[in-house]
């Protein structure tokens, strides 16, 4: 028996480890080889690739220089900052500790910038601008609605976090771009003066209508009084009767004014509002007093003049005079309420401050010629490289080449009749 002592030790390789190491090394070498093959194939056609890319760059540069220049003018405004309404304050007061927990996240008022951006996008302003600058001819549009859409496409209106509003207008003429941007502000100021955007504005419009109506009624009463004087021949009753009638007419006017105030308060206040209830109580008391005066009773005694005992002509005169005094009192009271509403509206007036007035831009905003050329160069380089690799792949694979030739033959052959 041969001794095994002293024989060299034989190392048996692990086949699993060998296969794993071989696979990883092969994959790495194959990927490196594939990448190098791609570079080599592209290097072989570098002249062709360079010519195509250079031609595309020259063509893109020519097109970029032929594109019309566009200038963008910008104007920035600061809309009026509205304070928190009384309704929002009441809700916050009712929330109590919950309002402090909500902190600054509790926002019960609308953002004024959103309201004015909505107005700037209105068709009313667009129509005025189109007519003012003849934009249908500028945009070469025959339909007015198309011109409105074109103006909106050339205009960008946005609001920043600080509350300011930026109006950007693009046009081929820098002066016209600045003029249109500034005209947006002018039209906004003009439109906000006619819109009731606040509670004071609504009250002003309400009393404005009432004053106009009271003025018309007063004119009719004056004509009626003149006609009555001509028909009856009475120019003035005795001072006592006249004083009583004036007091009665004045009370009539006060009742009418109080009714208008109650109607206005019902439009803007809840039914449980204490001011509204107090006004309704005062109106009811004034109506009772008016009924007592019309019956000739003052306090606990009767006056020595009863309207029902005035002669017929005098009664006609008294009625005309009472109507005239009533209309005068109503007109005077409505005028005072109208002036008060105007003062309140002036406090909340839309004071639009222009931060940056638009000026004709000196630098064009588009076209960005360098960006156009660079984009075309990158896309062309990618496409032509892909084309070269595809052609080389087809030439290397005889099966693929044969199938392309067969496809070409079937597409070009004459159809069977």
Count of DSSP strands: 6
Residue ranges: pLDDT <50 for 5 or more in a row? 1-21, 83-109, 300-305
As a percent range, the share of strand residues is 5-15%
Binned, the helix content reads 55-70%
Order of helices and strands: HHEHHHHHHEEHHHHEEHEHH
What does this molecule look like?
This protein is α+β, with helices and mostly antiparallel strands and 417 residues long. It folds into three domains: 31-65 and 381-410, no CATH class; 71-194, 2-Layer Sandwich (Bacterial polysaccharide co-polymerase-like), CATH 3.30.1890.10; 199-348, no CATH class. The chain contains 15 helices and six strands. It has helices spanning 15-44, 46-66, 86-95, 97-102, 112-120, 123-133, 135-138, 144-153, 174-192, 199-232, 239-268, 274-294, 312-347, 369-396, 398-412, and strands at residues 71-78, 155-159, 165-171, 297-298, 301-302, 353-356. The protein has a four-stranded antiparallel beta sheet with strand order 2-3-1-6. Strand 4 (297-298) and strand 5 (301-302) form a beta hairpin. Helix 2 runs antiparallel to helix 14, helix 6 (123-133) packs across helix 9 and helix 11 (239-268) runs antiparallel to helix 12 (274-294). The longest helix is centred in the last third of the chain and has 36 residues, at 312-347. The N and C termini lie far apart (92 Å). The model is unreliable at 1-21, 83-109 and 300-305 (pLDDT under 50).
